[in-house]
Structures are given as C-alpha cells and as structure tokens.
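Service request form, structural biology core

Requester: graduate student, group of Dr. S.
Request type: structure prediction, single chain
Budget code: on file
Notes: please return the result as structure tokens.

Sequence provided:
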Amino acid sequence: MATSQTVTYKADPDEIWRAVVKLVTRAGYAIAQTNQAAKQIVYQASGGGWAWAQNVQVSITSVDDDETMVTVLAEAAGQATFTEGGQQRKLIVFVLDELDKMFERAVHQHQPVNAPGTSGCAGMMLLLSGAGITGLVVATQLVTG
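Core staff response, request fulfilled:
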C-alpha cells in the first residue's frame, strides 16, 4: 500500500528542490536516489514499530510561472502491511509541514484523490460476502419451497 499527497506552492521549482534536499539531509534520512534534472529525490525512513521501512519519494514539477507542484509518495520498502498507513501519512506531513514554513501555498490546490485502500477492499469483501449470503438464502428458500 502506498500513500501520497500533492500540494502546489507559489515558488520557483529550483527553490523548492533546494529546500527539499536540505530538509531530507538535515533530518538524517538515507538518500537512495536523486535526480536533479527531474527534481526527484527518494529516501528511506523508519516505518515505526508496526511497519516496514518506508521509501519516500518527493517529486517537484513546475505548473505555471512561479507555481510548483510537490508530490510526496510513501510506500513500504518491504512487504506492505495494513498498519503502515499512519506512518506513511506522518512522513508525508513532515515534508509538507516543513515546506509550508518556507513557502506560501497556491490559492487553487489540486483536490486529493484517494486510491482504493484496505478499507475499500474490506468493505467490498463484506458487501460481496453479504450478497453471497443473501443469494444463498434466496436459493435455499427456492429449493426448499
């Protein structure tokens, strides 16, 4: 399972890139990969007591004149578990909160899109299970009359 969030700032992409690199290195995270041309950095952070280590990817994209979109993606470095979502959100919030201290957010923010997660899957399984039970009851009533 992966979690991501995107925020748009009123700033030059190069300024945000430099700020993100400083933020990650000062925090002491192990940097796995950087691509200055694409303005993308990948680093590894602890998953906490109930999750594997997490890979965090920060991508910076120019949207308009002095407007930059920052996307932070956190995903398990190993096998995904149901308990890592909270830690992933904390890792994302850490980056965005620090950027919020340095840069003003753009007026029009992109609306977050939530990909189906474990709760959606569990809900669908319950719905399908319930439908299967209902179908079984109806079929039994038809047979037994």
